[in-house]
What does this fold into?
Amino acid sequence: MDVPGLWERVDPAQLLLLRELAEHGSVTAAARATGRTPSAVSQQLKVLQRRVGVPLVERAGRGVRLTDAGRALAGIAAGVATALAVAETDWAGYRGGAGGTVRLAVFHSAGELLVPGLLDRLATAPQITLETYDEDVSQDDFAALTAGYDIVVAHRSDDVLPPDRGGIEVRTLLREPLDVALPLDHPLARRDRVRPLDVIGEQWIAPPAGFPIDRVLTAIAARAGEPVRVVRRTTHLPLMEKLVAGGHGVALLPRHTTRDRAAGRLALVPLADLRAGRIVEALARPDKAARRAVQVVLAALLEEAGPYRDRAGAGPGPVRPG
It folds into this structure.
């Protein structure tokens, strides 16, 4: 007697649910991501497990975790999700449409730099609805956000290898240099460049540990051979700018984002002897990146970032007091 194949035994929707469990790490989180109740998710997983005939999840403390078979099937489910998205895109193309809603997560300063122009570019695609959300997390945590958004704009310091992001498509948008922001009356404000030894003794305003700017501060400390003294921590760059302008410390700030607001308020001076910058990237799961509407938004993002990307190798043109 013939044994039924995998596709005769399972429902693709249940496979995709297993994939969400693998991505989110808990039944509760998978339920939240898919708009179901935890009990409904558990029930569907039990049905899937019964149909494939092997354990897919096992108890782990108060929660569950995937077995080896569960992880293997979740990997297959990722391929299924991508295939379904490609099929949907092809069908939409046949019907002459590329519409839908695209959910974009972007950290604050990249949103300020890119989102207004992105919206202008998407005015030619009224069939696409772009929803934007603020998400600013440690650089190693951006990949996990792709489970809940179609596109995630992330940043990472360019002095370290990127974290493991297996199964995530990555598009580099731009590299943004980080300059030392100084009060206009600071003795170093008129310099063309400053070295780590010049600024290591300053009172620093910085984002939380694990953010790209903080990692560059760590590199400054390593180069200077002394610890950095951080007196304030915040992720809000406009607040950092105000604090620097008011003489309450110095900071590393992204050049393109800060430049227009710096004139007449604070000096931006490049670092010498150290490559200081952050890489801004667009992350997406392959099944979401396969959607035509997502492809349109990604292309518009790349176009909007193009001028900044082209300026990455240009001279720094520091902002200094007149």
In short: The two ends are 87 Å apart (CA to CA). The chain has three domains: 6-93, 98-174+278-310, 177-273. The first helix runs from residue 6 to 9.
